[in-house]
Specification:
Length: 348
């Protein structure tokens, strides 16, 4: 087991003695800002002019500045805007104010790991990455508990980087649960690998392939939806609570037998080879370069992909079926609009 840090390992007064700027007020930003404020830390939120989050932050009683003014005022600057937007905002509004001894913080290591930011040598650079979505980080804190976090120290110019980072983690509630130390490289590489192969890429592709195989064979799409998508949650809940053992304990012996016979035929040595290749692309920067270039080009491929995926049969069927199950609290995602040029071309 790695070392796990708890409340007793962190000194809250350290971060209470600093000015903390939270850049961005989205999923993570609002949770960090409010939890820090409630822990007695001096907080300001940094937002770009015209940000839709400004009203929300002010309504919560927080002081909102421009990104540059917040960064200038702060001793510690936590960057919580979307990763692809970070380089431009950092260069223009944060870097000029990173004077010696300040602490620059992140909740995900992507931009530091892949070198998209010019980083001064005389500052501390650390990470506090909660292992949960922002709204849960806030809810769990208000209930008196905490969301576990990873911390990492990339650069310790002051000699106090780790103590101050643990203090920050305590202020957002994380040491109530437990904090594990990692590195920017490990956090970034495992995060990208997980989302590509298992959590997002793997699961979506598996669901679609199963659904489409049944529909292609003439089964009703509604039945295929229940089997290959809807029931996934029941299985994941069991795994989440008690591991694969508990899921296999709870399902029938026939289902468990199917697990052992079907699984290895679906995830084959070939699949593992591809997983290793995906990991290699992440480690050597090939993947990051592709995603950075895609963002710099205005995301043409990504947007096309999103539109195509949003209109899949499994999504159309799912929307109708979920409407029959209000107890699920169904949510409909606003669909991506085609690019203005295409829209005009279609209208004319
Ligand atoms: P988000 O998309 O929810 O929030 C973005 C915020 O940044 C918004 O308030 C928006 O107004 C602001 N913003 C956007 N562009 C901006 C710009 N150009 N200038 C100034 N402000 C701008 O982001 P998030 O999901 O909270 O992610 C923030 C960071 O936290 C990322 O590094 C992400 O990897 C990390 N993280 C997120 C989660 C999560 O659950 N969402 C979990 C762990 C770590
Ligand atoms: Mg992740």
């Amino acid at each position: 087991m790695p070392t796990i840090y708890h409340d007793n390992d962190a000194d809250l007064s350290l971060i209470q003695g600093k000015n903390v700027a939270i850049i961005g007020y989205g999923s993570q930003g609002h949770a960090h800002a409010l939890n820090l404020r409630d822990s007695g830390v001096r907080v300001r939120v940094g937002l770009h002019a015209g940000s839709k989050s400004r009203a929300k932050a002010e309504a919560a009683g927080l002081t909102v500045n421009s990104v540059a003014d917040a960064a200038k005022w702060a001793d510690a600057v936590m960057v919580l805007i979307p990763d692809p937007s970070q380089p431009a905002v950092y260069r223009a509004s944060i870097l000029p104010h990173l004077t010696a001894g300040k602490m620059l913080m992140f909740a995900h290591g992507f931009n530091v790991r892949y070198g998209t930011l010019e980083l001064p040598a005389n500052i501390d650079i650390t990470m506090v990455a909660p292992k949960g979505p922002g709204h849960r980080v806030r809810e769990i804190f208000t209930e008196g508990a905490g969301t576990p976090s990873l911390i990492a120290i990339q650069q310790d110019a002051t000699g106090n980087a780790k103590a101050l980072t643990l203090s920050y983690a305590k202020a957002i509630g994380s040491t109530r649960a437990g904090v594990i130390e990692t590195t920017f490289a490990e956090e970034t590489e495992t995060d990208l690998f997980g989302e590509q192969t298992v959590l997002c890429g793997g699961v979506s592709a598996l669901v679609k392939a199963g659904f489409e195989t049944l529909v292609e064979a003439g089964y009703q799409p509604e039945i295929a939806y229940f089997e290959c998508l809807h029931e996934l949650k029941l299985i994941v809940d069991l795994i989440y609570q008690g591991g694969l053992n508990y899921m296999r304990y709870s399902v029938s012996d026939t289902a468990e037998h199917g697990d052992y016979t079907g699984g290895p035929r679906i995830v084959t040595e070939e699949t593992r080879k591809t997983m290793r290749q995906i990991l290699k692309d992440i480690q050597d920067g090939t993947y990051a370069r592709r995603w950075i270039n895609e963002n710099e080009a205005g995301r043409p491929w990504f947007t096309k992909q999103r539109i195509q995926e949003q209109n899949q049969l499994v999504e159309q069927v799912g929307e109708r079926l979920r409407a029959m199950m209000p107890f699920l609290k169904p949510v409909t995602v606003q669909k991506e609009e085609p690019a203005p040029k295409e829209a005009k071309a279609r209208a004319s």
